[in-house]
Amino acid sequence: MSTERRTLNIGVISLGWMGRLHARSYLAVAQYFTELPVRVVLHTAADPDEGGRNYAYEALGFKNAVSDYKELLANPEIDAVSICSPNFLHHEIAMAAIAAGKPFWIEKPMGRGAAESQEIATRASQAGLVTSVGFNYRHVPAIAEARRLVRAGEIGTINNVRVSFKADYSADPLGALTWRFKKELAGSGVLGDLMSHGFDLAQFIVGKLDAVTATNGIFIQQRPLPTSGAASHFSQGVDSAPKGEVENEDYTAVLGRFESGAIGVFESSRVAVGPRAEYIIEVYGSKGSLRWNFHRLNELELADSHDGYRTIMASPAYGEFSRFQPGAGTSMGFDDLKTIEAYLYLRSILEDKQYAPSVGDGWAAAEIADAALESAESGHWVDIKQVDAPTTYDR
To answer: With contact defined as beta carbons under 8 Å apart, do 22 and 62 qualify?
Structure first.
């Protein structure tokens, strides 16, 4: 890797929670990945909301803030962009970034379904653009060790996998009917929002899925119409407000087959009472098993045929842990995972080689979600369409 530092002018589109996290993550790369020969400049933020633009200037230190993302993309000084807008704008903005020749880091779900995701991935690949998709749970050091153990055959032949992504962010029936509950604006519900992470983790650790059967449920049928400005998971309505119909799934249960012959069980809910952000993956092999829970991000449970489970604390030997903490027992957090993601994206740009999760990976997760939706309607097993854009699952 060259030691001469290259300046990259960054543009961030949409300065909500995730856009602000992207901006902070870019800045953090210089602190944690000091060998990366890059000088990051937060050049321009784009947000139609004046509060977002002011935050970009005053808190994050952006040089410029504009209301229209098209102005950002048209600026020849911008070298790379982050797309952190609501789902219904992902495709539009990604296609505009591709047309402008800008590498982009986009949050998941990449499109409102497999069709939009395919177009993004295909066009970006044809343009030769480096990309990144926000599959941040891949970057947990304990997950890095889990993947190593599985891929090295240390727990034997994989027989079955269980993935559970449950959260309570929509458990309150008075949660407002924001765009997230509308098919036209969000696409799928919990399949795209949470389970896309689960599908990605399973394929990242174990290998590709090739077929699924599924059932879905909408447990809170109606929600209060939102007040002006309500946009987040946590926006609240009032009981006396007019109500509208929830259009996409609160819950999904998916049974899957991996190409290897292993069986996968996937479950996800956005209305579970109890789990706050309980994201679990368990992998069972012929010689042992392992399990990880985001609630205990820095721990990996490992079992063999003799002693049952033992808990291993993440340490500098796992993934990028040593960048953040000097020894086991001192914890990393969620924001650190996005810093690793920012590093992989910037390194991908500098070396013109895909290190970050790619748009091909985003498309692959969307194809699984679409197959699960089709299965839930038909009641049949559905083969998953395999993508023909580059992925990083076997990197």
So the answer is: no
The domain 139-331+357-383 having CATH identifier 1.10.10.1100: the answer here is: no
Residue ranges of the chain whose pLDDT lies below 50: none
101 burial (CB, 10 Å; 0-12 / 13-18 / 19+) is exposed
User: CA 229, CA 232: separation in Å to the nearest integer?
Assistant: 9
Residue 34, classified by CB atoms within 10 Å of its CB into exposed (0-12), middle (13-18) or buried (19+), is exposed
Q: Report how far residue 321's alpha carbon sits from residue 316's, in angstroms, rounded to the nearest whole number.
A: 5
Q: Do you know the residue count of the chain?
A: 395
DSSP reduced 3-state for 211: strand
Domain locations along the chain: 6-136, 139-331+357-383
With beta carbons less than 8 A apart as the criterion, state whether 104 and 81 touch.
yes
What would the pLDDT profile of 245-291 be if each residue is shown by its tens digit?
999 999 999 999 999 999 999 999 999 999 999 999 999 999 999 99
How does pLDDT run across 94-129, given as a tens digit for each residue?
A: 999 999 999 999 999 999 999 999 999 999 999 999
The structure's pTM equals 0.95
Pairing relation of β-strands 64-66 and 382-383?
unpaired
| 291 neighbors 283 (Cβ within 8 angstroms) | yes
* CATH of region 6-136: 3.40.50.720
Give the burial class of 185: count Cβ atoms within 10 A of its Cβ; 0-12 exposed, 13-18 middle, 19 or more buried. middle
3-state secondary structure of 332: coil
